[in-house]
Amino acid sequence: MSIPNSIPAAFDLQLAYQHQRRKTFGYAQRRDVLRRLSAEIRAREPQIIAALQADFGKPASETILSEILVVQQDIKHTLRHLRRWMRPRRVVPTLIGFGTSARVEYQARGQCLIIAPWNYPFNLAFGPLVSCIAAGNSAIVKPSEMTPATSALIGEIVAAVFPPELVTVIEGGIPESTELLALPFDHIFFTGSPAVGQIVMAAAAKTLASVTLELGGKSPTIIGPDADIKQAAKWVAFGKFSNGGQTCIAPDHLYVHETRRAEFITELGARIASAYADGPTSPHLARMVNAAHADRVWGLVQDARAKGAALDVDGMRAGDAIGPTVLGGITPDMDIDGAEIFGPVLPIMGYSDIDTVIAQITARPKPLALYIFAQDKALVRRVLDQTSSGGVGVNLTMAQYSHNNLPFGGVNNSGIGNAHGMYGFRAFSHERAVLRNRFSLIPLIFPPYTGRVRRLIGVVRRVLG
Ligand code: NAD
């Protein structure tokens, strides 16, 4: 079948296929197509690395780790567990359900739309697609216009693996996205900014499509008074500067206990010097995705400097590349204190009372990630109990993303719903309640409400409390 040449045609083709999909797209077919996707990705690894290099200078090692390997692991994990995930789940009988059998069946939602961002353009298009296919759906995938080389390659890979009635890629930006969002999809899986998340949810409200929103925000990091500073500096540098800082779960800003502040900044500086010796031109550092984004991030640094921030590590700029930068003396009037930074710039604030840090975190929208470095279990517990975030990393950063058995998602401003592994499968599944009658006693209390029936209702009331 040829690839449809318009958005309505792509949608209609998948719509016409829904009946067939329900009948034929079972466990074996899903496994088969996921295996073919894995093989296609393996065969095209050099192209994937080249595309991300072209789009924003992503180092090959980072592409292998955070784009290719993550998706391959997702596929492998899904293939290993899919049969179990698909299996209907028996639920514990209840008194009212006496004489019935109850189970939850996982049914494909149907026609899905996946909108991906540019920052991990490969991973965040194929990751959701793996879950979508595992759950038995069809999908239209809209990658980001900001990473054109990767988006084109995503289109090629999808066309090589999937028939268009099952999966199609629509490339483009806001106009294409808007046109897609007006169509009556059954489920929309969106990854991107909270601002566009609101647009997506408003569009979904029109057709009452269910949504999974994987959004962003300002993820805080806390360094406690007893933290292992060397380890903390290593993890923070990894989390903050991987992908050029353009990571939804990157530490956005950092609170360090005053007693350890100088030591932490020294360690972080040493870490930056050894990992990214060439500053903005380091081959180990991705550049900003485009000039506008580089201007925005650099503008945050300039604004903070003009308002009195200290430049603890001067990252410098070379074209669209910005070197790892560390700022101190941050005040609330600085732009960097308000926006998601999404670049290799880390503002560091000192604190002496954890309650003030908790108060500052809870005063902001709930972040996607929160990191705490501390040995004191009571301190960690206190931060866990008194804050909210999509996920938490204790004495590490980022790795919570790649744990296949953990849900990945935000809360309110940082997202709605979860992705990854079984959670991704469920995001793309309708949990359908199925109750079968075997010898239910409920008909005994059907009308007419004679004296005998009323007495029985009285008994039922007493038994059920
Ligand atoms: P974005 O919201 O600007 O764009 C995401 C997608 O939405 C793109 O495909 C884009 O074409 C489309 N889009 C943009 N404006 C639109 C509009 N007005 N109407 C309809 N569609 C529109 O996000 P981005 O800049 O690509 O990515 C960065 C953001 O994504 C950050 O906030 C980051 O934290 C977040 N993010 C979240 C996750 C996660 O898993 N939670 C992962 C990566 C990025």
TrEMBL record:
<feature type="domain" description="Aldehyde dehydrogenase">
    <location>
        <begin position="24"/>
        <end position="433"/>
    </location>
</feature>
<dbReference type="InterPro" id="IPR029510">
    <property type="entry name" value="Ald_DH_CS_GLU"/>
</dbReference>
<dbReference type="InterPro" id="IPR016162">
    <property type="entry name" value="Ald_DH_N"/>
</dbReference>
<keyword id="KW-0520">NAD</keyword>
<keyword id="KW-0560">Oxidoreductase</keyword>
<comment type="similarity">
    <text>Belongs to the aldehyde dehydrogenase family.</text>
</comment>
<feature type="active site">
    <location>
        <position position="214"/>
    </location>
</feature>
<dbReference type="Pfam" id="PF00171">
    <property type="entry name" value="Aldedh"/>
</dbReference>
<dbReference type="InterPro" id="IPR016163">
    <property type="entry name" value="Ald_DH_C"/>
</dbReference>
<dbReference type="InterPro" id="IPR016160">
    <property type="entry name" value="Ald_DH_CS_CYS"/>
</dbReference>
<dbReference type="InterPro" id="IPR012394">
    <property type="entry name" value="Aldehyde_DH_NAD(P)"/>
</dbReference>
<protein>
    <recommendedName>
        <fullName>Aldehyde dehydrogenase</fullName>
    </recommendedName>
</protein>
<dbReference type="InterPro" id="IPR015590">
    <property type="entry name" value="Aldehyde_DH_dom"/>
</dbReference>
<dbReference type="InterPro" id="IPR016161">
    <property type="entry name" value="Ald_DH/histidinol_DH"/>
</dbReference>
